[in-house]
Write a structure and sequence with these properties.
The chain has about 170 residues and is an all-alpha fold. It has one domain. It contains eight helices and no strands. α2 packs parallel to α7 and α6 packs across α7. The longest helix has about 35 residues. The chain starts with a helix and ends in a 9-residue tail after the last helix. Keywords: Membrane, Transmembrane, Transmembrane helix.
């Protein structure tokens, strides 16, 4: 097997992973910058410095959300004694802490948008677009500028459906 073919086979999954990590990070880091305090540059530095921590904590989100959903469902369906027996007194406190964090984030975003609307919006857009463009560049390189398999098939179908057969002159 030739070395360039091997590198191409190995590089595609890595570029796929990088593409989606950068696209995911674009939204998450954009949300962090939106809620960050300070000037334009401090908002951006907060976003860039939190990349590692945020990507590490994203892996915990599905379990956390599942747990919260289960606690809320059980709170609504179980009796008080059964709920306390299953979860103790800490489950509702944890849910309330998470709700409080969400409200505090919403207040921080509101304060940023009222006090420094231009700096907040520009910093958020700049960070988001930077990460998103890097993700798109990984995709472009992975697909060699040709688009995905689905895009190719969609183009072929579009040609079949929308291209008119040539009309012949029957004179």
């Amino acid at each position: 097997m030739n070395a360039s073919r091997f590198l191409t086979i190995v590089a595609k999954p890595i570029l796929f992973l990088l593409e989606y990590l950068f696209k995911l990070a674009a939204g998450v880091i954009g949300m962090i910058v939106l809620g960050a305090e300070g000037s334009f540059f401090s908002k951006m530095s907060t976003g860039f410095s939190s990349i590692g921590n945020v990507l590490y904590r994203i892996a915990e989100w599905p379990d956390s959300l599942t747990y919260i959903g289960t606690v809320i469902q059980d709170y609504n369906t179980l009796t008080a004694s059964a709920f306390n027996e299953r979860y103790g007194g800490n489950a509702i406190n944890r849910v309330m802490e998470l709700l409080n964090e969400g409200v505090a984030y919403g207040q921080a975003v509101y304060q940023n948008l009222t006090r420094q609307p231009v700096a907040t919006v520009v910093a958020t857009l700049l960070v988001f677009l930077l990460f998103y463009i890097i993700g798109r560049a990984c995709r472009f390189y992975r697909q060699r500028g040709q688009g995905s398999f689905l895009v190719k098939k969609e183009r072929e179908l579009g040609k079949r459906v929308f291209d008119q057969p040539e009309e012949k002159d029957y004179q």
